[in-house]
Amino acid sequence: MKMKRKLVFATNNPNKLKEARAILQDKVEVVSLADINCYDDIPETAQTLEGNAMIKAKYVFEHFHLDCFSDDTGLEIEALDGEPGVYSARYAGTDKDSEANMKKVLDKLKGISNRKAQFRTVIALIIDGQEYSFDGIIKGEITTEQSGTSGFGYDPIFRPSQSKYTFAEMPAEEKNQISHRALALQKLNDFIKTYNQFYL
Ligand code: IMP
Question: Exactly one of 35, 40, 71, 72 is catalytic; which is it?
């Protein structure tokens, strides 16, 4: 029987871990930062999602010498030249104040008819010392007011193009089928499937 490869997901977010394990479960054993006793606050100092995702993966690879992947996500709004993008978590100043972040977006888009936006996730992978990256994009639009209470972040003001509902009005299972993160994880899964055939 083939051994399952161990892959660190550079996060301690239980929802992200659950989602990643559900998608990657047959191929690899996904472990968290806590599982490898990493409690460091890894600085995210890059100006791009790609850069921040790679910083986190490299940190784990360099300090723990383990295969690793990490993710970074941003909401990119066309009429705001791609803002908040890499600054999505702290758009209104304070880290992860979703109410303030959504208010800032809605205020900036007041009177603007182009509401096109996308969520983009970048996953950086370092395996056997080689670097790879994968992205997942979901296109949609910013609503004029908040709707729904599930999810997190900008979910109450983002409606995917193929839906009548915002992410916050959908059950988690429905969002997780179509989300930016799920799409990027599926690309990672496809890559690992092929990689394992050749290198395990
Ligand atoms: P992270 O890179 O996954 O930590 O995401 C950065 C920021 O983007 C979060 O703090 C949220 O504000 C926003 N974000 C990421 N994913 C989602 C999502 O699925 N729905 C809504 N907002 C999200």
Answer: 72
